[in-house]
Design goal:
The chain has 259 residues and is of the alpha/beta class. It contains ten helices and nine strands.
Length: 259
């Protein structure tokens, strides 16, 4: 085995060590488990991600000889809206900066970087059919669905779409699932620790890979983490005036009475 194959088989976090990545260690291991599963399903594969920033999530694909092409789509905004109600600011957010970072990891000739929003991008710009998509762009429900729709148009007949920050964009994810149900398309969907959400499209059984299966049978990590991430809203709703208002409305509507 090569050093890379040994590292990914062990879900070795050193594959992310050269560029800062805005994800937890559990998230990174889930990403690597998905990559490992795709490598077992495809002798060669193409990867596309939406929202690259510094290039941290591209690192393990850049050094994977089985990954033939990497597409990085990022509009590169200075300020980005977020479903949590606070705009996030990204300083020096440029493709050139990302590529300079990635040159520390390996040759960047297989990267195709596109500065665009998926809502404005023609799917024909993606010349290779994609096996694995990763969505980590604008964290709003509408943007997640827009990015998902784009991924469906560039995905191979079967493949996987992975989302980060599922605890934030859960309404967008619900809309993605609703679309698949209505379209009658064959799929499986599940969460992985901590806030990773996976949708398998067609016959692409990523979930059978032992590392993925282990996370699925111990998925309390993603469930509890997501609830705790949103617990501040419950704490707010149970404070002072809000609690009095809720108590009043509950009594008026009789929601606390049972027969």
């Amino acid at each position: 085995m090569t050093d890379f194959e040994t590292a990914i088989a062990a879900l070795d976090l050193r594959l992310f060590e050269k560029i800062e990545s805005q994800s937890s260690d559990d998230d990174k291991r889930s990403f690597l488990a998905c990559q490992l599963a795709v490598r077992e399903l495809r002798a060669k594969y193409n990867y596309l991600e939406i929202g690259s920033y510094l290039g941290g999530s591209i690192q393990p694909y850049l050094v994977d000889d089985r990954c033939s092409r990497i597409y990085s789509i990022d509009k590169r905004p200075k300020r980005q809206p977020d479903a949590r109600g606070v705009d996030y600011h990204y300083q020096n957010n440029s493709t050139d900066r990302m590529l300079r970072n990635l040159e520390q990891v390996g040759p960047i000739d297989k990267i195709v970087a596109i500065d665009a929003d998926t809502g404005d991008l023609d799917a024909s710009k993606i010349e290779s059919k994609i096996d694995l998509c990763f969505i980590d762009g604008e964290h709003t429900d509408s943007a997640v669905y827009r990015d998902f729709d784009f991924c469906l148009r560039v995905l191979a007949n079967s493949g996987a779409i992975v989302f980060h920050d599922a605890s934030v964009t859960y309404n967008g994810l619900d809309r993605c699932i609703e679309h698949l149900n209505k379209s009658g398309r064959n799929f499986r969907a599940y969460s992985l620790p901590n806030i990773v959400f996976v949708i398998e499209i067609g016959d692409f059984p990523v979930h059978r890979q032992p590392e993925i299966l282990d996370r699925l049978t111990n998925n309390y990590g993603s469930y509890i983490y997501s609830l705790k991430a949103n617990d501040l809203y419950r704490r707010f709703a149970n404070k002072g005036p809000m609690r009095l208002y809720r108590s009043f409305m509950t009594r008026i509507k009789g929601l606390n009475k049972f027969e």
